[in-house]
Amino acid sequence: MKINFIENAAGSGLFTGYIPVASGTFASLAALLIYLIPGFENFFVIIPAIVISILFGIKIGDKFEVKFGKDPSEYTLDEFIGMWIALIGAPKSLVVLVIAFVIWRVLDIIKPSPAREAEQIKGGKGVIADDIISGIYTLIIMHILYKFIQF
Fold first, then answer.
1. Which of 31, 95, 119, 124 makes an SS bond possible with 58, Cβ 3.0 to 4.6 Å?
2. Rounded to an integer, what distance in angstroms lies between the CA atom of residue 99 and that of residue 55?
C-alpha cells in the first residue's frame, strides 16, 4: 500500500511522527497548538475534526502499519485525536491546557484498561482505539476537575 503525501502528512500528525524522540509528545503538543486556533474549541468544529480524523485515520493507520509495523511511532494522528477528545469543552487557559496535556500524556503512555486491550485490535482501528479511550479518560478527569476546582 502506497501512502500519498496527504495521507503521510495527516497520519504522521503534520510530520511529528518522524521526530526521532517522543514523537507522541510532539504530536500532542501540535494538536494542542491547533486547539488554540480561535474557534477550534467550538463543538461544531472540534467534534467533526475528531470524527473525520478517526474515520480517515483508521484507513491511514492500516497503511502505516503495513509500511512501518504494528502501532508505528511514525503514525501520530492518534495523538491528535486523543488530545482533542481530552480538550472537548476545555477553557483556553494555560493552567487547564497544561494539566490536560500532562494527564493525557500520562494516560496515553500507561494505557489504563481497556485502552491496553484496545491497542491489540488489528490495523488502524487498534492504533486509534487506545488513544480514544485514554482521551475519554482525560476528558472525564478534566471535567471533574472543572467541577471542583476553579481554573
1. 124
2. 28
